[in-house]
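Q: Could you fold this chain for me?
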Amino acid sequence: MSNLVKQAGIISAADFLRLFVKTIIGILLARILTQAEYGTYRQLFMIYTLMAAIFMVGLPQSVYYFLPKSDGDTKNKIIRQTVDIFSVLGLVSAVLLLVSRHLIAGVFNNPDLSRILVIYAVYPFFMFLSQLYYSIMIGLQQPKKAAGFIIFSLCFDFILILGTAILTKDLFFITCSIVLSVLIQWLYARFNLRKYTSGSWFDYDRELLKAQFRFALPIGIAAIIGVISAQVDKIIISSYFSPELFAVFAVGATELPFIGIITNSVNAVILPEMSRKDNVKAVSDLYKGAVRKNALILFPLFVFCFVFAAQIIELLYSAKYLESVLYFRIYLFTIPLRIATYGLLFQVFNKTKFIFIISTFTLIVNTALSLVLINLYGLKGPAISTVTVTYLTVAAYLILIKIKLRINLTDLFRLSALFRILSAAVLSGAICYPVLFLKVNPIIRFSGGLVIYGIVYYLLGRTFKAILPYDRDVVRSVIHDIINKVKRAAYV
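A: Sure. Below is the predicted structure, expressed as structure tokens.
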């Protein structure tokens, strides 16, 4: 398990770096651009998220599943045919985005989108392969190469996007820099995949391709439904309100991005390992350990962000986005559920049809409830709907895990441990709450609250036996490893 922890640590470190740089870019753009322009910028990436879910059809997940099980020749076949397919799908999505730009601008109530999409339309073609390269490196169990690609990409994103934003303060030219950066990433991925992709185009192993699509399609369809369901609140807000109001909503009504990084990094490592296990108990033990480790981070993060929500929004996006605090707090209630990835077990046991069933249920209910609540409660209606449906979705997954996979939930969730972690987190938040009333600089108040919360949570965690000696040893080992790598790099 220690090797898995190290792999997850490498992926998490790289993804946290990506998060940090993307967050800095987003924060500065929110301050540089008007709310209308920033709303347009956020809509561009919402459009890409939808396009990627539709056209990737679950193939990256199939790479995670099949590559660890395959030998050298079969691995190359999987990589080559997946790269070729992604190239075609990226081209199709780019053309579709270009020809439908006026329709998209009308649906999103934003005429400026049609002009920006002329340039942005090629983004999916380049970005599809970039995302696939990352999945391939993880599937090949080469997390250092995956992390290296992230760092390479971030360098160009940071320099090109922020440099253009500071110099021009014009969204059109910023979009051009985004496309240029992803073109460079595409060239990097193509160059480094060349040893796996030699051979004739479309010279495929049909049986392998069928197996890959049989596995991927249910996940892909579920992903389409899941992404639409996750974005349905923003789609509805875009069609009902102006880009300015959409920007305010989008800043607050979003899950903390590093939540997905934590869980996805763990999942990317344990899914191949779980796929190798031949009994339910071994899979359950891996899953249970991952859930507890996620909870140690996510539970205190939820409580701290809820208490200091106003300070977080003001410090990051300035006072002009303080109206976003309400939506931010509503969405924070999804964090406690993210300690587990409930569809992961259905992937491991190759019963992905249940992912499709639940995702369909989620989309239908969330869309209907969002349309009802937006008329009753305005902007906050879709946010309430999304959080409510998320809880219903998790309940449905747990029921199916017990009934269809015949796994006792107590074998997957160590409830006593989770309760101790949550208790330590909530009590720490209550102790730190008076910090909000200190008459000091907001940055000092926030920083002081963060330090106090961290110390109190650690002490209570040890007292409640939520934080174990093993956890401290892992943290120390990771920190020691990072310091050694930095020292080695300094001498190169």
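A (continued): The two ends are 31 Å apart (CA to CA).
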